[in-house]
Amino acid sequence: MGGGQLGRMFVHAAQRMGYQTAVLEADGESPAGRVSHHHVRSGYTDARGLAQLAELSQAITTEFENVPAAALQQLAKHRPVAPAGEAVAIAQDRALEKAHFVRCGVPCAPHAVIETREQLAAVPADLLPGILKTARLGYDGKGQVRVATPSELATAWEGVGRVPCVLEKLLPLAFECSVVVARGRDGVMVQLPVQRNLHRDGILAVTEVYEGNVPPALGAKAVAATRAIAEGIGYVGVLCVEFFGLADGSLVVNEMAPRPHNSGHWSMDGADISQFELQVRTLAGLPLAAPRQHSAAVMLNLLGDLWFRSAATPSEPDWASVLALPGAQLHLYGKREARAGRKMGHLTMVAADAETARAGALRAAALLGLPAF
Ligand code: ATP
Ligand code: MG
Ligand code: MG
């Protein structure tokens, strides 16, 4: 379900293993729909489209985080569905998500749920300065407002239309990281190594994966927390959990995504089993062998901004110059139109060691006009 780049990379992984695919997506020109054997052109709530998808499929998964949980539950009456609608519903709502983290004993940022004027008025002063986040439908930093005072908070809540929100205390981040796990129906769980992430303007910009990318004790904590979070909802499928490493040396969980994640894209080139193959394996009920990272990897996200470096009309970046660098792996998602902030592709630099991967990625960034990191 869903026709974006995550669906496209899933389709590629499934097809490589001999499966046929069907994509449910209303847009006729989507990245996943255009490479799939079947393309059901339908919205996520259209009963006919869902019936057609079930008819075509032996098992169903989603690449789109905001697919209605009810649609997954409906499909689950006819076909195995992973992840389950119940798990996706928790990930779709920051308030439910944080309650789940607390239940699993994993610390998250101090926060307050704001659904009413009374809750707004009762927000403790020590949550400010903070970030007001809409409880639902936010991604890439959209639906978030930084607020320093109670009056800024009130204005921000008005500004988002008084929808249910979570106010989070603004934390002093030392670094960000994430962990991708895959859990099968039999409860077997495997994970990818801890991924160190750099965000710019609320959007993932760089992911670095190699020994020593984060303090080892915190990396081990992040893996244990991710496994507890998946275990705690009997999760089946691929799950990514994002964390903040704080200045005082502690680790708190940020949020989870019930699917492969942008920060796991390096695994297509740096590990023997990618996060998309893990998704295929969980869906098909195949064994989950532990992925082995064989190369140090640094991934650069390629946003639409790159297409507007030299002129107001979009022009293709100079891929040839970066592809001349050893270890450069270019992935473009086949989106019809470049727009600022839109994820158009990514570049993974792989090498035998971290220094070489980093040097190559910095060289590629310079060639493309991306900032150093
Ligand atoms: P995604 O595209 O990852 O789903 P999102 O829109 O759900 O993003 P978050 O992950 O909540 O957004 O936040 C985006 C980024 O903003 C974080 O990666 C982090 O850099 C920063 N951020 C979020 N919450 C906090 C916080 N409480 N304190 C400090 N920085 C934060
Ligand atoms: Mg998010
Ligand atoms: Mg995030």
From TrEMBL:
Location of the ATP-grasp domain: 98-284
GO BP terms, alphabetized: 'de novo' IMP biosynthetic process
Gene: purK
Protein keywords: ATP-binding, Ligase, Nucleotide-binding, Purine biosynthesis
Keyword Zinc-finger: no
Enzyme Commission code(s) on record: 6.3.4.18
InterPro entries (alphabetical): ATP-grasp (IPR011761), ATP-grasp_carboxylate-amine (IPR003135), ATP_grasp_subdomain_1 (IPR013815), PreATP-grasp_dom_sf (IPR016185), PurK (IPR005875), PurK_C (IPR040686), PurT/PurK_preATP-grasp (IPR054350), Rudment_hybrid_motif (IPR011054)
Annotated source species: Caenimonas sedimenti
Pfam families with a match to the protein in the record: ATP-grasp (PF02222), PurK_C (PF17769), RS_preATP-grasp-like (PF22660)
Reaction(s) this enzyme catalyzes, per UniProt: 5-amino-1-(5-phospho-beta-D-ribosyl)imidazole + hydrogencarbonate + ATP = 5-carboxyamino-1-(5-phospho-D-ribosyl)imidazole + ADP + phosphate + 2 H(+)
Oligomeric form and interacting partners: Homodimer.
Name of this protein: N5-carboxyaminoimidazole ribonucleotide synthase
